[in-house]
Amino acid sequence: MKKLSSLDIRVLRIFEATATSGSLSVASKKLGITQSAVSQAISQIESILQTHIFDRSQRPFKLTPAGIALSRRAKQIVEDMDKLVIHVKEAALTSRPAIRMGMIDSFAATVGPAIVKHATTTASHLLLWSGLANSHASALLNRQLDIIVTSDDLSDVDNIIRRPIFSEPFILVVSKSRASEFQGKDLTYLIEHMPFIRFSIRSHFGAMIERYLRRSGYSPRPYLEIDTADVVMAMVAADLGWTIMTPLCLLQGRSHLHQITPLPLPGVGTRRTIYQLSRENEYEDMAELFLQASKNTLETEIFRELRSLLPWLKGQIFLK
């Protein structure tokens, strides 16, 4: 009995591949193993059963009567095992929670792919919303989303777990054709010589920039007001105006990088912190896993690219 127990699914799979093809070499290629491993498995089966299962005097190999009898049952056993594996995997998948996440556009476009890849190993499926932070905050509070990545920490809301991810400064972005003119100039000069392209004040991001301008005593005239970073970048690249954004937004609109020039924000600047928010006592382990995946992607990929593009950033962008 102990010897018969060695007749496992692996050797049966090798036997069935060889029986189907009549060739050790074809079976080895199909299974991705060496021809020697195939030969050893066949010899193992014949030793256990104490009979020949292939007539090796013919090419391709022909099954002996014993081999034919084994093949009839082996094929069914291999198929049943494959079905069993699929069934178990499906059961494990359905036991994982479905996660609903919201991410601001700049984060979704840059760090998001790594989070989605990570989520596929821990959740049965992932619903991902991108867009404005305000809508994500409302969806989290209304239980339409479970985890959000946002610049709004909802400081006035109870029972929220706030996990800071990273901090980045706001920067100035102008068209490449005007870079030499605006280099080292203050915002008053920019406002007087070229229109300001705004991020929509409907967004938390746009509202942050407007508060900064107002506190600093600047009032650019109304011109263009846009929701997304890639469209803002397209307008700046077309020499239609200048804007204020962050390095992460710059990467979101990376297709326009060759037509624009990022510059430090003159004077006393401002910055934003990106948070991961979730409700207390819900999905805490998964939220922690996503947080670590976010930080790892930022440190190993995003920050490295930004420091290459903007050497003057130095220590101004960092994990929290």
Question: What features would you describe in this structure?
Answer:
This protein is α/β, with parallel strands linked by helices. It has three domains: 9-91, Orthogonal Bundle (Arc Repressor Mutant, subunit A), CATH 1.10.10.10; 94-166 and 272-319, Periplasmic binding protein-like II (D-Maltodextrin-Binding Protein, domain 2, 3-Layer(aba) Sandwich), CATH 3.40.190; 171-269, Periplasmic binding protein-like II (D-Maltodextrin-Binding Protein, domain 2, 3-Layer(aba) Sandwich), CATH 3.40.190.10. It is 48% helix and 19% strand. The protein contains 13 helices and 13 strands. It has helices spanning 9-21, 24-31, 35-49, 65-95, 105-110, 112-119, 133-141, 179-182, 187-193, 204-215, 229-237, 247-252, 284-309; strands at 54-55, 62-63, 99-104, 126-131, 147-150, 160-169, 171-175, 197-199, 224-226, 243-245, 260-264, 271-279, 318-319. The protein has a six-stranded mixed β-sheet with strand order 4-3-5-12-6-13, sandwiched between helices. Strands 10-7-11 form a three-stranded antiparallel β-sheet. A two-stranded antiparallel ribbon has the order 1-2. Helix 1 (9-21) crosses helix 2 (24-31) and helix 1 crosses helix 3 (35-49). The longest helix is centred in the first third of the chain and has 31 residues, at 65-95. It is elongated, with a radius of gyration of 31 Å. It starts with 8 loop residues before the first helix and ends with a strand. The model has no long low-confidence stretch (mean pLDDT 88).
